[in-house]
């Protein structure tokens, strides 16, 4: 939860995308923006980076959700002593409670992912709602919403998280004590960056002509937001969501590591907490602290990579092989020009528009 | 517990040569100006009190060679050496190592004996305890220490009723001082609890009258007094203290040089203040510390890895049991007020797992009793009865106990009767007390497995203390009296006494679970006043029966009174079961070893 948020960088990059979008909108007002884009780029042109990211995230998801169904030991099952060495039956040994590390790891990863998804959904939903409303409506509402957002942004999220999670542990509302409670808290504290970035996008979309047309045709504000603004932000929101999920997983891990996590639930952070408490590093029990660290790294690296490869997909300027494509385009243009010389002037104008 | 052997064989000539060799090596290294606080030294030969792997280090060089590095008592900045302050810094805290202040008698946890300290002898005559103080005892400012100082120390409890000494007068009627070396303590004639009086004498420091009679004039509430230069009677004085360390310097005019057979070989004691257990343990394992009082999981790995680290017992459980961390149940809560539910809980708890994992194997098998099955309390315990009337981990039996009492399992998998659902109960203990945190995590899992809903909650220590004392908790892992001259009686009183039972919301200092019983006070009184061992045993066993019928609390594990572990990097001749001239303690009789340690590099 550092002060530097990749979203702000993303904000700048995606603004460029919108310029590209805008041209495509100009080209065909009635065409759906995404479809127009796909036609222009000739289908999903995903890079190798995307597949690596998908493989990493897919591996963790499989491990977390399918793993516990097929693994012979349960996460709460005592199968050995304190930090038993890895063996043929327990490939990663046992943790401080004598539970099989692999089974705890799988259940922990599941809870961490679940936490990330819930927190990411909550944060994205709040952020998008506030951002779109502020960006589209503008005026005093924008000032007010952005004022609130900036205030929330100025409060260090980790402090708020720590304070709320301490009181959560003491609550009498059952479900808030678990991973759900923590996920909600993380979601409710990490939306401001999304809100700010989405507002910038929304206010740019708000000035486009198709909005005017929608207004002229009598559409109401909620309808315009839903049908004419949000679709243009969809690619951006997906990327913001992926970042929120990664951030929430790390936030949960750092809170749980401090011992402020949910009680009696396993997660990657909780696993690290017990490894520290029982001095796994000091006693050389690497199997207690390395696996959760590696899974945490894999999942957050995978999600960030996924985000950046999605960015590439959505933003033509970042696409790989740009030089090659430009060279090919130049060649095509040269060929067309050569053709032009042999054709009448009226046709030439039409061809130029196609090649633009 | 492994039996404790008498003195081992005297050091052989070969052992002497080995020591001389180690000394020569360390001298050479010192000459090279190289730091030699190596973690793994050579074989210690037949020297006593070295690492459990038979190794010892090469000794430190420079001034560090003449310093004892001790750790595990002071965790915050050392800002006040007023022993009455709630944040008193080590060693001015109550009942810790007697380096600054001393007690008249010193308790030995291994033998159960009361050894002489400031008092050279004591005599119990009915309800009279007579103490004879050492000749020539004096304070670090040169003033003589007399029986009047002892009497005045207790007087401080009357002058300022807010301090901890005030409570000691419950069991004392008066203190007389017929002459400068004699004090007679008259035990309260209705409570007749001589054992508790002896325990208090063994745990309460004696303070200088000439200092505190002045202090109390300006600080009627002693806890507000601020000092960095305390005057004590012990072998060390505070020479520096801040947020990083406490430094004690040897008091060369110490009165006890002849009594203890010489001065300590080290001229300084340094207690570094660490941020956490981890930091402290890392320093200890790296050979930077000599002796520590912290929980180190799997301590055997340190000597298996070649570190010259040792414990008192050479085999599991490594530490001498000294206390019983208790699972205290708030008997005023609906559901928890039913003895059948409490008994089911006792059956449900997998104490073997707790001992093996949460306590890293440093606990013997738990017996269903408030008396410890080893040490000085073992003679009172009826083990067969504890087994037949008590409980051991048996999840099926736990559920059966609930069913027999009329509870039925709801659709949520939790038992309930007459609208009272068993849970959700919060199990509390302070955060960062890792072994207890882990123990309660196991207990919560055990409870859920049999259909009792429970979650753990680990608040800050101060919060947790308030909640436990005020009875604002469901269940807690908390401490009750550790082995002392007054246990096991004291433990029965701590868990069940109705004498000073407090309403919920008002601080209590025993019976946190607010267990109510008509017979208990009478039985406690009978046990306290028992004249001989046979009647004492009968009375204590009757109390134990009552305890097992009502289960107001459940023993979770046995824990050492203090985690005593040493590293033979600079000193050897540490006490252990083979070299048992002193108990594995820091407090009480644990001060004996500071005079007997030998320097490796000399």
Could you please say which CATH topology of the largest domain in chain A applies here?
MetI-like fold
The class by helix and strand makeup of chain A works out as: mainly alpha
Percent strand of chain B equals 15-25%
- The string of secondary-structure elements of chain A, in order, is HHHHHHHHHHHHHHHH
Task: Tell me roughly what share of residues is in helical segments of chain B.
Answer: 25-40%
Report the oligomer.
Answer: heterodimer
The total count of strands of chain B amounts to 25
CATH top-level class of the largest domain in chain A: Mainly Alpha
Largest interface: A-B, 25 and 34 residues
> Could you tell me the radius of gyration of chain B in angstroms?
25 Å
| Count of structural domains of chain A | 2
Number of helices of chain A: 16
- Low-pLDDT segments, ≥5 res of chain B: 1-41
Distance between the termini of chain B: 35 Å
Number of helices of chain B: 15
Describe the sheet with the most strands of chain B: 7 strands, mixed
């Amino acid at each position: 939860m550092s002060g530097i948020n990749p979203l702000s960088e993303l904000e700048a990059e995606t603004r460029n995308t919108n310029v590209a979008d805008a041209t495509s909108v100009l080209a065909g007002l009635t065409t759906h923006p995404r479809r127009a884009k796909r036609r222009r780029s000739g289908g999903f042109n995903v890079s190798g980076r995307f597949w690596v990211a998908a493989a990493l995230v897919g591996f963790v998801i499989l491990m977390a959700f399918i793993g516990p169904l097929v693994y012979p030991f349960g996460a709460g099952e005592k199968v050995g002593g304190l930090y038993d060495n890895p063996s043929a039956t327990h490939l990663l040994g046992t943790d401080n409670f004598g539970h099989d590390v692999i089974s705890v790891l799988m259940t922990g990863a599941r809870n961490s992912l679940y936490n990330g998804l819930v927190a990411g959904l909550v944060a994205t939903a709040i952020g998008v709602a506030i951002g779109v409303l502020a960006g589209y409506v503008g005026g005093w509402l924008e000032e007010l919403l952005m004022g609130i957002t900036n205030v929330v942004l100025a409060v260090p999220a980790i402090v708020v998280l720590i304070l709320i999670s301490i009181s959560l542990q003491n609550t009498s509302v059952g479900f808030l004590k678990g991973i759900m409670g923590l996920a909600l808290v993380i979601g409710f504290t990490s939306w401001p960056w999304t809100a700010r970035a989405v507002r910038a996008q929304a206010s740019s979309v708000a000035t486009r002509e198709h909005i005017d047309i929608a207004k002229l045709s009598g559409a109401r504000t909620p309808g315009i937001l839903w049908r004419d603004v949000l679709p243009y932000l969809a690619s951006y929101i997906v990327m913001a969501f992926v970042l929120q999920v990664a951030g929430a997983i790390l936030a949960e891990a750092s809170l749980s590591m401090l011992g402020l996590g949910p009680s009696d639930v396993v997660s990657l952070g909780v696993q690290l907490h017990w490894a520290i408490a029982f001095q796994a590093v000091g006693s050389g029990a690497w199997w207690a602290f390395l696996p959760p660290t590696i899974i945490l790294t894999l999942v957050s690296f995978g999600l960030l990579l996924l985000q950046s490869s999605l960015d590439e997909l959505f933003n033509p300027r970042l696409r790989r092989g740009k030089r090659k494509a430009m060279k090919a385009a130049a060649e095509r243009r040269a060929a067309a020009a050569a053709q032009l010389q042999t054709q009448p002037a009226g046709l030439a104008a039409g061809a130029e528009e196609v090649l633009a | 517990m492994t039996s404790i052997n008498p003195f081992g064989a005297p050091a052989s000539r070969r052992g002497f040569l080995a020591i001389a060799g180690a000394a020569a090596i360390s001298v050479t290294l010192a000459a090279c100006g190289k730091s030699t606080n190596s973690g793994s030294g050579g074989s210690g030969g037949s020297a006593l009190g070295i690492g459990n792997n038979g190794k010892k280090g090469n000794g430190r060089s420079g001034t560090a060679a003449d310093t004892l590095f001790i750790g595990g008592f002071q965790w915050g900045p050392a800002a006040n050496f007023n022993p009455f302050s709630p944040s008193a810094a080590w060693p001015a805290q109550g009942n810790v190592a007697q380096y600054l202040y001393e007690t008249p008698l010193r308790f030995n946890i291994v033998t159960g004996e009361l050894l002489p300290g400031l008092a050279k002898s004591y005599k119990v005559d009915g309800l009279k305890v007579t103490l004879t103080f050492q000749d020539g005892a004096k304070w670090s400012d040169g003033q003589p220490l007399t029986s009047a100082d002892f009497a005045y120390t207790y007087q401080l409890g009357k002058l300022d009723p807010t301090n901890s000494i005030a409570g000691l007068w419950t069991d004392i009627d008066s203190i007389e001082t017929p002459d400068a070396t004699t004090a007679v303590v008259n035990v309260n004639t209705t409570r007749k609890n001589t054992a508790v009086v002896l325990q208090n004498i063994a745990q309460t420091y004696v303070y200088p009258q000439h200092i505190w009679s002045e202090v109390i004039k300006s600080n009627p509430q002693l806890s507000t007094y601020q000092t960095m230069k305390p005057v004590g009677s012990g072998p060390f004085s505070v020479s520096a203290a801040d947020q990083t360390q406490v430094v004690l310097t040897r008091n060369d005019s110490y009165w006890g040089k002849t009594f203890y057979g010489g001065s300590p070989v080290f001229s300084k004691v340094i207690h570094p203040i660490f941020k956490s257990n981890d930091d402290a343990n890392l320093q200890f394992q790296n050979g930077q510390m000599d002796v520590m009082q912290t929980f180190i999981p799997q301590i055997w790995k340190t000597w298996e890895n070649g570190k010259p680290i040792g414990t008192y017992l050479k085999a599991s459980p490594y530490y001498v049991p000294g206390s019983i961390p208790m699972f205290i149940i708030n008997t005023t809560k609906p559901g928890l007020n039913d003895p059948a539910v409490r008994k089911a809980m006792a059956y449900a708890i997998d104490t073997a797992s707790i001992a093996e994992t949460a306590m890293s194997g440093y606990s013997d098998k738990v017996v269903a009793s408030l008396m410890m099955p080893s040490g000085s309390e073992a003679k009172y315990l009826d083990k067969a009865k504890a087994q037949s009337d008590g409980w051991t981990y048996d999840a099926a039996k736990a559920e059966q106990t609930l069913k027999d009492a009329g509870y039925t399992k709801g659709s949520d998998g939790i038992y309930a009767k007459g609208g009272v659902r068993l849970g959700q109960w919060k199990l509390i203990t302070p955060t960062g007390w890792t072994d207890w945190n882990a123990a309660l995590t196991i207990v919560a899992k055990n409870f859920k497995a049999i259909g009792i809903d429970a979650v753990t909650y680990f608040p800050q220590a101060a919060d947790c203390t308030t909640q436990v004392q005020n009875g604002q908790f469901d269940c807690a892992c908390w401490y009750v009296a550790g082995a002392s001259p007054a246990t096991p009686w004291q433990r029965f009183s701590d868990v069940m006494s109705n004498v000073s039972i407090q309403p919920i919301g008002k601080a209590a200092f025993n019976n946190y679970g607010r267990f109510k019983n008509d017979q208990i006070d009478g039985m406690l009184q009978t046990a306290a006043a028992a004249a001989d061992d046979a009647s004492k045993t009968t009375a204590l066993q009757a109390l134990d029966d009552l305890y097992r019928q009502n289960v107001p609390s459940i023993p979770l594990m046995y824990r050492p009174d203090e985690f005593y572990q040493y590293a033979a990097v600079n000193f050897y001749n540490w006490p252990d079961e083979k070299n048992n001239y002193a108990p594995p303690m820091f407090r009480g009789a644990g001060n004996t070893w500071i005079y007997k340690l030998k320097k490796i590099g000399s």
